[in-house]
Amino acid sequence: MVLAGVLVALVSACSGSGGLPDREVLAAYSETVPPAGETVTFYALTHCGVEHARIGGHWWTAQEPLSTGEGGSAPPGWDDPYQQGRLTLESASRAVFRAHGEEVVFQRNADDREPPGCR
User: Fold this and answer.
1) Residues 12, 43: contact at Cβ < 8 Å?
2) What whole-number percentage of the chain has pLDDT above 70?
3) Which of 43, 95, 44, 93 lies closest to 66, judged by CA?
4) Whole-angstrom Cα distance, residue 7 to residue 83?
5) What pLDDT, on the 0 to 100 scale, is given for residue 48?
6) What's phi and psi for 26, nearest 5 deg?
7) FRET label pair with 82: which of 2, 75, 96, 113, CA 20 to 30 Å apart?
8) Residue 27: helix, strand or coil by DSSP?
9) For 15-38, how does the pLDDT look when each residue is reduced to its tens digit (9 = 90+)?
C-alpha cells in the first residue's frame, strides 16, 4: 500500500485526535508538493514509528526516526495509527514534522525507492 509508512496531510476537517482521516485527506500531499516555506497540518503514520514520508510524489526518510524503539511503534503519548501535527517543507530536500513538542526532520531519498514496511 502506497500510504504505508508515509506522512500525509490533513487538508479538510476530520474526526478528532486519533481519528482516521478519509483516503482523500490521507493522499493530499503524498503526491502533491505542499507550499514551500509554509506550515501545513499533516497526519503522520505512526503505527511503526515515524520513519518515512511520501511528500510530493517522492520518498523521504527521517534523519532520526521517532518511535518507542520496541518494534517501531508510535512514540509514547502519540496517537496510533496516525498523529496530527504540522509539516514545513523547508527546501526541496528537507521537511520538518512537529507534534507533541517533538520534531522529526526528513530528507528526500536520493534514489526515491519505496522504504521497507514495518519490521
Assistant:
1) no
2) 80
3) 44
4) 10
5) 84
6) -65, -35
7) 113
8) helix
9) 344 557 777 777 777 778 889 999
Our CA angle for 7, 92, 34, nearest 5°, is 50
Q: Closest Cα to residue 80, out of 118, 107, 106, 116?
A: 118
Residue 101 CA to residue 57 CA, distance in Å, equals 27
The DSSP call for residue 23 is H
* Sign for the pseudo-dihedral over CA of 77, 81, 86, 88: positive
Q: Report the distance separating Cα 97 and Cα 60, nearest Å.
A: 12
Give pTM, 2 decimals: 0.77
Residue 72 or residue 34, greater confidence: 34
Sequence-ordered list of residues with C-beta below 8 angstroms from that of 47, at least 6 positions apart, any chain: 73, 74, 80, 81, 118
The three cell numbers of residue 70 are 520496541
Residue 98 to residues 28, 51, 110, 113, 116, Cα–Cα distance (Å): 18, 13, 23, 24, 23
